[in-house]
Amino acid sequence: MAHRPPASRGPRARPAGGRLSSSGPCRPGAAPDHQEPLMTAIDVTGARTPEAADVITGARERIDALDDRIIGLIQERVAVSAVIQEARISSGGRRVNLSREMDVLGHYREALGKPGTALAMTLLELCRGKI
User: Fold this and answer.
1) Across the chain, what does the average pLDDT equal?
2) Rounded-to-5 percentages of helix, strand, coil across the chain
3) How many helices (H) and strands (E) does the chain have?
4) E strand intervals along the chain
5) Please, which residues have CB within 8 angstroms of residue 95's CB and are 6 or more apart in sequence?
6) Per-residue model confidence (pLDDT) at position 81
7) Coil, helix or strand for 37?
8) How many CA atoms lie within 13 A of 75 on its CB side?
9) Residue in 116, 4, 121 with CA at minimum distance from that of residue 70
């Protein structure tokens, strides 16, 4: 599970075969008689104006960058968790410390509400596997 740099995320936010333009259709390299359907930023974002499409496109790029950072942090957490589990197991302990997991669940619930508990459960499963 390798961390991808933000630059590799561009195609996710763009229609196949072209780049986005809030001012109108764009078909790089297409001949004038090309019959490919045209997609604008308004089509892709669902916005009603070019200005809103620009805001949405920029915000989605920011979300993509945040997602990349979050994924990287999760991967780092998984690695640190593996170190903890190895130390615990090699010292004769159990792989999982349920009281610690309850603390993590409580922390996420307090910070994010009920969905935080579900997020923490998923995070714990990624870090230690299913119990």
Assistant:
1) 81
2) 65, 0, 35
3) 4, 0
4) none
5) 85, 88, 89, 128
6) 96
7) coil
8) 10
9) 4
Q: 40 near 21, Cβ under 8 Å?
A: yes
Q: What is the pTM for the complete model shown?
A: 0.67
User: Taking the CB of residue 66, how many other CB atoms lie within 10 A of it?
Assistant: 11
Q: Distance between CA 28 and CA 99 in Å, rounded?
A: 57
Six token digits for residue 118: 């579900």
- 1-25 burial string, b = 16+ CB within 10 Å, else e? eeeeeeeebeeebbbeebebbbeee
Give the SS3 label for residue 26: coil
Neighbours of 55 (CB within 10 A): 14
Whether residue 87 is predicted with pLDDT greater than 60 in this model: the reply is: yes
Alpha-carbon span 101 to 125, nearest angstrom? 10
Do residues 74 and 123 make contact, with C-beta atoms less than 8 angstroms apart? yes
